[in-house]
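Posted in: Structural Biology > Protein-Ligand Complexes

Title: Requesting predicted complex, shikimate-3-phosphate in pocket

I'd be grateful if someone could produce the 3D structure tokens for the following input. Sequence and ligand are given below.
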Amino acid sequence: RQIPVREKNIVLIGFMGVGKTTIGQLVAKKLYRDFIDIDVEIEKNEKMLIKDIFSKYGEKEFRRIERETISDICQAKRCKVVSLGGGAFQQEEVRNVCLENCIVLFLDLSWDRWKERLDLIIESRPVLHNRTLEEMQELFNARQDAYSKHNSRVQTDNLVAEEVADYIVETLK
Ligand code: S3P
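-- Reply #1 --
Done. Output follows.
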């Protein structure tokens, strides 16, 4: 059976630190839906912080856990707003399961704007540690394809979180 649009999860994707969690929480509130942050879900299930999963088990194992968590949530739950970690959409299986079951929205922030927020972003993001700014930009650029392919894009450069959330709610009507 096809899932009716109003029952589908709304999934927010985009690079680390673009505001997926903040905006997701606002959208959920406006639509009277529950909000699920996949990273928080993983930390709850594993009883460990993401950065500790990275340092103890490595990125490959983190990606396996991430893929399974997203698969479970996107197939079993409905009517939620879900934010994914910034690397999740690089996995084909994640893309497929989300595109089949959910409405996927890409929160697009330009590199220049992103760079201004770096100090706030870096601490909790192990993927950024030990990278030069130039290497971070390479990663940023390399991921844009997977984010923008097949997904609706919301340009957020000149909007505050509340405005992005209002825009999303409007476009879903
Ligand atoms: C990651 C992004 C993080 C988290 C992990 C890896 C990535 O999520 O899943 O640190 O590879 O981009 P946020 O995008 O919520 O920071």
